[in-house]
Specification:
globular, 65% helix, single chain, mainly alpha
């Protein structure tokens, strides 16, 4: 009697969390999956650091602000209604935390750096400046990830094209193209704020 052939066994590849999109990671993290949240932290930490640095203008408190933002995000993830918008949501969280830290660190009575001094610091101008900053953060959050990272590394961190290319593992020509597209989008969507 001949041996019967072995039944076909389906081989499935284990899921590698680093390959999973942000929306699914956010859903899993919202359900308490610490490993999924760790991937989100690794994936978006550099971007959040750049935003915090831009908001604070110094590096001594950046890590604290980013950590505070991630702690707040971890607590609030179960209530998030659109997990696919996690990147934009994290950007808003870190921007608010950085603004709070900046306000708390100012001596009493000192005006915001981004608001005109004395007679120009009317309530209308303050609201206008803050609204423009929020609008820019929203436009930035909507950019494709590589364009967003290029723009932040160039405009916020001040890296050269070569440094950005090395950071992203792409040719300098790719960096120039990504930056060009990011700048065009930022300019067109921020037109109302000129």
């Amino acid at each position: 009697m001949a041996d019967a052939p072995d039944p076909v066994v389906a081989v499935t590849r284990p899921v590698v969390l680093e390959d999973v999109d942000d929306g699914l990671l956010a859903e899993r993290a919202g359900d308490g999956d610490v490993r999924a949240f760790e991937v989100l932290v690794r994936r978006h930490g550099p971007l959040l650091r750049a935003v915090a640095f831009r908001a604070l203008g110094r590096t001594d408190e950046v890590d604290d602000v980013v950590q505070d933002a991630f702690v707040a995000a971890w607590r609030q993830l179960p209530t998030m209604t659109d997990p696919s918008a996690i990147r934009a949501w994290l950007l808003r969280v870190v921007a608010r935390r950085a603004a709070d830290r900046h306000r708390a660190s100012r001596p009493h009575g000192e005006l915001d750096d981004d608001v005109a001094l004395e007679e120009q610091a009317t309530p209308h101008r303050i609201v206008e400046a803050r609204s423009a900053t929020e609008a820019m953060a929203a436009v930035l959050a909507d950019l494709p990830e590589r364009q967003q990272r290029c723009w932040l590394l160039k405009e916020v961190v001040g890296e050269s094209y070569e440094e950005i290319a090395e950071d992203l593992g792409v040719p300098v020509s790719t960096v120039r193209g990504l930056l060009s597209r990011a700048r065009r989008t930022m300019m067109s969507r921020m037109e109302a704020w000129r």
